[in-house]
Amino acid sequence: MNFANPQIQTEDLPNIKEAVLKPISKTYLKIITLNKLAFYSLILSAVFGLKFFIKKDDFQNNFWFVFIGVILICIINFIISILAFQKRKYAIRAHDVIYAKGLIVHSMITVPISRIQHVEESRSWLARSFGLATLKIFTAGESGSDLSINGLPHLEAIQIKDIISAKVNGKD
Amino acid sequence: MEKIDFSKAMRQSSKGIIVIFVFNTVKFFKKFFVLFIAFGVSILKSKSIGNVTPTMLILATIGVLIVILVFAILKYLNFKFYLSEDDFHLATGIINKDNTIIPKSKIQNVYIKQNFLQQIINVVSVKIETAGDKKSEIEISALDKPTALFLKEQLFTKKAVESEEKASIEKRDVFFSVSPKRLLLEGVSQNHFKSFLLITTFVFGLYTELEEYLKELNLKERVEGVVKLDEATILNLLITNAIIVIAVVLVSLLFSVIKTFIINFNLEVVEHQKTVEINKGLFNKVSLSLTPSRIQNLVVTTNRVKQYLGLHALSVKQAMVNAKQQKNFNIVALEKVQLNYLINKLLSNYTEDQGEIKKPSRYYMRISALEMMVFLLIINGLSIAVFGLEMLWINVVFIPLTVLYVHFAYKKAYYRISDNFITIGSGVIDTTTNILEIHKIQSVKIKQTIFQKPKSIASLVIYTASKSVTIPYVSKPDAISIYNLLLYKVESQDRDWM
Questions:
Q1: φ and ψ of B171, to 5 deg
Q2: Domain locations along chain A
Q3: Low pLDDT (below 70) residues in chain B
Q4: Which residues 365-384 of B have a C-beta within 8 angstroms of A?
């Protein structure tokens, strides 16, 4: 019988720490900024709208405090999302795809290529105008186990997609 | 049993008209329920609205019923199916004709169900599930039982393995059937906390409503009573509250027992050569089969009382099964021996003592203590805001409870990784054991908050095709090495997950 059962040394296994994670395109920061600015202006105009609807004195007198409070929250949120931007990193290894993100809750997910059901490359019009693309990787697992890597340079996204597709199809 | 020839296009049993008719009628009335109530009440009050009299309304209802009946007959006449060598063909539609062809190899599950009406007229419905989304489900709503069983058998029979499959079906071996006594015990020993909370909030809502009503009735005495708060009133209040609590407990007990009985009536586990079949239900009889290759996770649930009584529940999570069906793959009231046997049948080579048991980091205790503290603060804040400072006594009850909660949550948490399996234990009141096969993992995730970073603590989330399980709060180096090991195993073994 041709069967061997060598012991596995956990230290010798391919280590996730040794994978060099690549940051996503810097241009994507512009998209984040634009999206965030649009969102903040919506909120601030809503706050301003309240000024005209609520005529109570309590509210009118303290309006500027409320306004400054909201602006402060927006600024903090913005700083966090810029810091979190630097945490968005990805890597493709021979057998799996790695994606890490998150500042407050940092997570790193790895999907073995043999478990990928299909790959998709999609671009919003904003991403198109910056020459970026989003790579979506679907598994058969729960929705939480699907990957979507934002802010890849378009060419690179297509390349990765082709590499993964070739590997996935090669299996069958 | 006579052989039924499925190769010619056939209709379902003519009783199907009744099933379709009743089903559509119920659906129709459900849709316009509010309208009917509003209409009915106003007609009862004023005898007529505009020119509509009660007789006209009854006539209209009869008219609608006739239309539904005609539709049911047409639907029945236009519903035809047949089997070819490799495919199942179905033609439906009165005006828009639909032709569905399902290759036998793509059929994931065939369920046989029987609701209350179907039990009365003695037919069953057959549901065919494919791997696609919900729309691709097919239901034949009325077939007599031998035909349905034969159809099911035919659907699973491929040309090559015909003889083998036949043999396995003849060898029908009832492995486990539940007695009413055990079902009763199962119902009584359930975790009543959920139903208790549900009913408590309901009763509490009713009680406060009623109280307000009473207040309006005799405001003066009421106010005086509250201000004086003499011993008699306090005693009264305590007694009423105690009675209410006891009543709620009894009701929730009854609720659980009845629910358990209805769902699991005549639960039966039948063992075939390769698959395992579950039959159960009082009003809705269901018959399901489990295929080991499709199983992704096993969840065993029990609690202190149940363990003592020898009651274990096994829930089987399969891939490609919709959420509603998923609930049915639940076998209750199993003895420990039966449970182990069944687990072994579903997952080959699983034994309980493989691999080393490891505990999460102590951090788990701190974080759950912190969570409980927040919970206590909220409870206290609310009760002080609503009832005043004297409600602080509730902490006498709540603080020990939270301490117990933290203690048990940590005590019951463990994980164990063996060559082929991961076992994760969790639970507070219940004891839950999650088992999954390593080669069925879809992806792995490591999670760490910025508060955990200085302490070097992280959590692992393991995804399979039906569920995700978490190994909470282990040390970062451990988490990384588990992460590496799992990925290595999945990627190097090249085994299919389904």
A1: -80, 75
A2: 28-84, 89-171
A3: 1-4, 43-52, 131-136, 158-172, 211-233, 322-323
A4: none
Topology given in CATH for the domain delimited by A89-171? PH-domain like (2.30.29)
**A4–chain B Cβ distance below 8 A for any pair:** no
What is the ipTM for the molecules in this complex? 0.87
pLDDT tens readout for residues A50-60: 888 877 777 77
With contacts defined as CB-CB under 8 Å, which chain B residues touch A15?
480, 484
Question: Closest chain A residue to B497 measured between Cα atoms?
Answer: A115
Domain with CATH 2.30.29 in chain B: 16-162
Residue among B321, B437, B443, B487 with most chain A CBs within 10 A, to mutate: B443
The tens digit of pLDDT for each residue in A76-118 reads: 999 999 999 999 999 999 889 999 999 999 999 999 998 888 8
* Residue linked to tokens 């019951």: B412
Give the SS3 label for residue A114.
Answer: helix
Amino acid B168: pLDDT: 44
Residue A20 backbone phi and psi in degrees, to 5: -90, 110
B449 touches chain A (CB under 8 A): yes
- Count Cβ atoms within 10 A of the Cβ of residue B216 and give its class: 0-12 exposed, 13-18 middle, 19 or more buried: exposed
Chain B closest-CA separation from residue A97 CA (Å): 10
